[in-house]
Amino acid sequence: MLVLGIVLWLSSMVTQSCTSAIGPETLSDGELARHYNSRYSIFDEPYGIDFKYHNYEQMSRFLRATSLRFHNLTALYSIGKSFQGRNLWVMVVSSSPYEHMIGKPDVKYVANIHGNEAVGRELMLHLIHLLVTKYGSDPYITWLLDNTRIHILPSMNPDGFEVSKEGFCEGSQGRYNARGFDLNRNFPDYFKQNNKKTQLETEAVKEWVSKIQFVISGSLHGGALVASYPFDNTPNSLIKVFQSYSSTPSISPDDDVFRHLSLTYAQNHGSMYRGEACSPSQPGFKDGITNGAEWYPLTGGMQDFNYVWNGCMEITFELSCCKYPPAQDLPHYWEENRVSLIKFLAEAHRGVHGFVIDENGNAVERASVKVKGRDISFLTTKYGEFWRILLPGVYRLEVYASGYTPREVEFMVVEEHPTLLNVTLHGTKKWTQSDVWGHTTTERRHTAMSSPHLDHPVQEPVDTDSIVFPNS
């Protein structure tokens, strides 16, 4: 359920000391051999996280220390490497971190896409610390970790961060990756062909989100104070008209849900909800939220890619007017965002959740599922499981799978808890895999893919030999 005594949670949440020593070692010899690396030895150091900026080595050290100390709550893995060879670390925080558990949605945060937008990177480290240290004592956080699998990528652009400068509120030093590419303009686009060469960091994220069916995602940025939701781009005919601040929104089929998710973050934030402009030259935002294209259109954004190609509902959070503020300001940003960061992820437990099975009760994997009237398809997991965030109302679910007769089912969503909906498909030889691909791709009417192997999101299996994931 969504409402679990937030008042009690807030009153009990007291900042935990960052100087507590590591307790008696509880890892087995095998676990030590698997996790221990002398380069990152932390056995003789206190565990904690300070309010300062952490470079790549310091961030890696903290993540490894957390993984060692809280090995029952965390799983540390890399989705790939940057151009300069730095790991793109992801920390899973959950009571079942190493494998997907039925009924637990996978959710994620991605920060530091632009290397000089540093606040989100540090907030992710503090969020990890909060989750692992409050589990078992804080009711809301305990419920969240018991019912959700949280993946946190603190830095998608570690190379850019290393050359960024603290105190620089504007400018582009460190914004791009080491090859000079803007990673938030580097994804396939819903409306327009994106011809920019796909970067290693981008490819790693694309493979990551194709492997794990994420339900909800937050992308953390800086330089403004607003929650921005899809679509970020507009049809080709409008691109030439709106080159700077736009006045025309680009509405997605799930606009009501995206607005709700954005408001959830903004209204729980210390000041975002006010919608104040960062400067006279920048716009203000009613209630602290905006449609991305209405603010300014962009091609190749990660937000639209998550939604269109993977059915993951992602919001972009601009967390600070200054892109790289002094470290002394970090406690302020943490206090402004910590409630929002938690409440946003809990929204994954809203809408409809269920399974697609066959007549014998077997899971139907990679079935194409769509809410009627909302032209974005999403896929079932290998367990036949699906999630969709929806507001209260009556809906119809359309389900398609190779070798089965298509099915349409009516269901109702309520406010208090997600609706459980199981759909049974009946076998037939009339519905082929190519029909499923056709159904999925025709819903992407404006799509022009930049990577040939992504032309049909449900067609090709993902090669994961080069990447190590927890079981998904």
Automatic annotation (TrEMBL):
Residues 52-348 form the Peptidase M14 domain. SMART domains: Zn_pept. It holds the Pfam family CarboxypepD_reg. One of its GO terms (biological process) is protein processing. One of its GO terms (molecular function) is metallocarboxypeptidase activity. Residues 1-19 form the signal peptide. GO terms for cellular component: extracellular space. InterPro entries: CarboxyPept-like_regulatory, CARBOXYPEPT_ZN_1, CARBOXYPEPT_ZN_2, Peptidase_M14, Peptidase_M14_domain. PROSITE patterns: CARBOXYPEPT_ZN_1, CARBOXYPEPT_ZN_2, PEPTIDASE_M14. Keywords: Carboxypeptidase, Glycoprotein, Hydrolase, Metal-binding, Protease, Signal, Zinc. The keyword Protease applies. Gene3D superfamilies: Carboxypeptidase-like, regulatory domain, Zn peptidases. Its cofactor is Zn(2+). Residues 443-472 are annotated as: Disordered. The active site is at E318 (proton donor/acceptor). Belongs to the peptidase M14 family. PANTHER family: CARBOXYPEPTIDASE M, PROTEASE M14 CARBOXYPEPTIDASE. This is Carboxypeptidase M isoform X3. The lineage of its organism: Eukaryota, Metazoa, Ecdysozoa, Arthropoda, Hexapoda. The gene is LOC105270050.
